Amino acid sequence: GDTARANERWRTTVSRDPMSYYGATSARRLGREPWAPPPAADSFVRMPSVDSAFARIDLLNRLGMDVEANHEADRLANDASESIDRLLATSDGFRSRNETPRSISLAQQALGKGAPRDARVYRLIYPVVLRDVLIEESRATGLDPSLVAALIRQESRFVPRATSPAGARGLMQVMPDVGRSLARSLSFPLWDPVLLYQPDVNAKLGTRHLADLFRRYDELPHILAAYNAGVSRVERWNTKDGVDDTEMFTERIPYVETRDYVRIVLRNRDLYRALYEW
């Protein structure tokens, strides 16, 4: 009931940590938009040594020499730390080749060294791969594509062949048994878990699964928690006192991984909305 003190706390949080889930939530409580990086075109300094290294990597990949290409990529990434411009140019090169984990890591290093905190750099940290597939499947299921991008960024960093320790696969980290059930409901002519490594198939099944959760729950934190931890756990957590408040529900998720997952995906969504035209 102490509005003045609450506003003071929210302003402090926004000032101290504007990029965080709590900073974004506090901004909304104050009637503001969450922090977003200032606009900037995707323009980076061209470096002949970086371009020639990527040319070697591309040639090795075309020759089927994947191990050698990976050695070259590792060396290129290690050499990038000599300057901010080189970090950003190398990150951009990896992004254009869908090597998003390396791209993200190098752009984060650039920020740590003092790179401008603008949209150009944040699009390296929050990339979009297979954009047409993502938008098509999001629209087919009535989902917000920025939310789907935010979820994929957290699940796999846009790596089509990502596999979790639990066995979840692909862009949206779909479990094989869930994939089989969804494929059956969509009348797939055949099913094999290896199909989950195909980006278009994974996006189709993952967005269907997410859309099913939207039909089950009204609030996004519940939906994301169910995507990460399963419906049965969310049903159990919904019996706790105070969880009718969605912020309280998020804070009282007992699994640290799921609690962080919900907060991170929600903040990712804000950034994807600000960084891209959907």
Features:
278 residues, flat, 15 helices, single chain, mainly alpha
How would you explain this protein's 3D organization?
The chain has 278 residues and is mainly alpha-helical. The protein is 64% helix and 0% strand. It contains 15 helices and no strands. It has helices at residues 3-16, 21-29, 48-62, 66-79, 84-96, 100-112, 119-125, 131-141, 145-155, 176-185, 199-216, 220-229, 231-237, 246-251, 256-275. Helix 3 (48-62) packs antiparallel against helix 4 and helix 11 packs across helix 12. The model has no long low-confidence stretch (mean pLDDT 96).
CA-atom Rg in angstroms: 21 Å
Mean of the pLDDT scores? 96
Total beta strand runs:
0
Q: Treating each run of at least 4 consecutive H or I residues as one helix, how many helices?
A: 15
In percent, how much strand structure appears in the residues? under 5%
Low-confidence stretches: none
Strand and helix order: HHHHHHHHHHHHHHH
Oligomer: single chain
In terms of structural class, how would the helical and strand content be classed? Answer: mainly alpha
Rough shape? flat
Q: Give a quick account of the main beta sheet: strands, pairing sense, barrel closure.
A: none
